Amino acid sequence: MIVTIDGPAGAGKSSISRQVAERLGFEFLDTGAMYRAVAWAVLRQNRELTDESVVADVASKIDIDLSGGRVLVDGVDATDEIRSPDVTQATRYAASNVAVRMHLVELQQQFGREKDLVTEGRDQGTVVFPHAECKIFLTASPEERARRRVADLATRGVSAEYDDILAQQNRRDEEDSSRTVGPLRKADDAVELCTDGMTPEEVIQRLIDIVEERRVSL
To answer: What ranges does the record give for the region Disordered, renumbered to this chain (predicted)?
Structure first.
């Protein structure tokens, strides 16, 4: 069974989806981490982010290992660094790159061929796994998402201004929704859940309920 959880940046997809997968006994695929890993690798190699051929070349040559809850790029643990503001800003160059997306989508589809899977991202239910048995669109208001992002950065020792994060997030929402390849949009058959005012535990339980309801109906 494949469960896709799509939604905008800052909706809490990664942490929530990981816990949902653990409780269901499913594998977890953090596709956002894959695009971040590509951006991190480009920055680490001091390559040109705005050159599409360069970014595509880096993506095709690096090894991304998401096992064990960590993100290893060519054997280097980049789990924390890919969440830094610099990488967050740079990730759009990987996400909007046609060749990069084609390569990573193929890797994602391979990952889901023989496993019960919870996968999160922007286009999992629309592009990568259009025939997934359960699709969820997880969202929250821009203000709530910005507050969560500031709090998350604080736990990592990174200071950020709320207004700056909100502006960056709004720009990213526009870019994600308007790009020609793999745009952010809700699948027609997805269940939408707005998490404003909900605790993480409430969100997790609601998502598990949605999956179980869908599994019973199969």
So the answer is: 165-184
